[in-house]
Amino acid sequence: MTAPMTSESTSPDLVVLDDMPPAALSRGEGPTWHDWVGRYRRTGHVTVPAIFSPAQMQGAIADAMAWSAAFLEQLDDAKRAWYLDNSASRAEAQSAVLRKLDNPHANRPLFRRLAAHRPLLDCVETLIGRGVSAYFSQIFMKPPHGGGPKPVHQDNYYFGPADPDGMVTAWIALEDADLENGCLHYAEGSHLHGIVPHEAPPERPYDLLIPPARAATREMVPAPVPAGGVSFHHGGTWHQSADNRSDRWRRACAIHYVRNGNRFAHPALPYDESLVLRLT
Ligand SMILES: O=C(O)CCC(=O)C(=O)O
What is the mean pLDDT for each group of 10 consecutive residues in the chain (280 residues)? Predict the structure, then answer.
């Protein structure tokens, strides 16, 4: 369906900003600038720590929870089962937790600022080229001992971007994400083999997933991310998250960036182009 990215066939106008490593990578030890770009090309994902401060992440969590409470308040019955983690009645909804919130970059000034954070954009522009926009975003919430798994899928199946290499997902860990509380897992190198068919369970028509028998053919490697770090993944990379088996929350914000001019040309679900936010 889409051309796979290889290290030989990156987008022609991709620019690697050799002279401007993100601040997070110029501090301390760990992978160098070139190491992490190479890792992304090879495996389809890479994690960069400490792009945001603890204070920024605490502010983001407080804002997400305030938005969640306000959103729950006005949710009608039809939408409740989709948005709530445990399908809840109206009475239960008082204590229920939203599974996800769409487009924080467009709805919440604080998340708009996170999306425009220069060290984050440095990384994004290195991966997909200069001049980028936030196209779609989501906050994902897994409460302690709750928050079901997100099955294996490819973002580019949902988005169908005109240029599959001109889209990257930046998954911001608002708090530590690890094996116990449901961090992401990736099938390394899966972005090199194109897009595979997805299906949706009849009761969850928006939950497009790679059929379990096929998903089981690939090893899924966990990608723990410390609070304030960002896991970047290519739109073709198979990924999933497990349920939260810990006493802790796992809240994260995924921002899907495109290089300007690229668009979701053949999306599997509708996306509102009026919310696209040009950033550079
Ligand atoms: O955070 C999750 O559980 C799922 C995130 C995801 O699928 C994504 O960012 O593309």
Answer: 32 38 55 80 93 96 94 78 54 64 97 96 93 98 90 98 98 97 98 97 91 97 96 98 95 98 96 97
What the block records as the tokens of 195 is 């897009």
Residue 19 Cα to ligand 1 midpoint, Å, equals: 31
Ordered structural domains, the chain, with CATH: 23-263 (2.60.120.620)
Helix, coil or strand: residue 123: helix
Contact 166, 249 (CB under 8 A): no
Model-level pTM? 0.87
Residue 8: which residues within 8 A CB-CB, separation 6 or more? none
Q: Which residues line ligand 1 (CB under 6 A)?
A: 140, 150, 155, 169, 171, 239, 241, 252, 254
Tokens found for residue 78: 């039809």
Strands 221-223 and 184-186: antiparallel
In three state form, how does the secondary structure of 13-59 look? CCCCCCCCCCHHHHCCCCCCHHHHHHHHHHHCEEEECCCCCHHHHHH
| Alpha helices for 116-176 (secondary structure H) | 118-128, 155-159
Q: How far apart are CA 227 and CA 251, in angstroms?
A: 10
Minimum CA distance residue for ligand 1 atom 9: 254
